[in-house]
Amino acid sequence: LKRASLGSEHPSTLGVMNNLASLLVDSGNLTSAEPLILETLQVKRVKLGTDHPSTLKSLNTLGSVLIGQGKLDEAEQVFREALDGKCAKLGFDHPSTLGAMNNLASVLEDLGRVDEAEPLYRAAMDGMYEKLGWDHPSTL
Q1: What is the mean pLDDT of each run of 10 residues along the chain (140 residues)?
Q2: Which DSSP string do the residues of the chain spell out, in sequence order?
């Protein structure tokens, strides 16, 4: 519906496409999620820029697809790109940056690189506590 009324490159359409890809990942439908998030990411990079928060959000969704497919090395690179972009654009202590940090830590742990994952987990946890408080759903 959004594509028909607003066009496939409109920011609202792209947001819905990202959300649908996330839903497909969560439901285990990686076959449908991958082309959708790749299309979304490609358009966002061109229309919004590589460092736009919405583009960086789609990188995280792509990382989730890659994890689901067992492509952990590729997911690591995608999560690193998202974290670097969010640090530069939003700052180190922004909740979205801290979430990206947690995502990278998780894939590093899955790769057996616990020594690299631990400081990222700690920094993400400490930042979330400091920024959002102990009772916020993201810190529980």
Answers
A1: 73 91 95 96 95 95 96 98 96 95 97 98 94 81
A2: -HHHHH-TTSHHHHHHHHHHHHHHHHTT-HHHHHHHHHHHHHHHHHHT-TTSHHHHHHHHHHHHHHHHTT-HHHHHHHHHHHHHHHHHHH-TTSHHHHHHHHHHHHHHHHTT-HHHHHHHHHHHHHHHHHHH-TTSTTT-
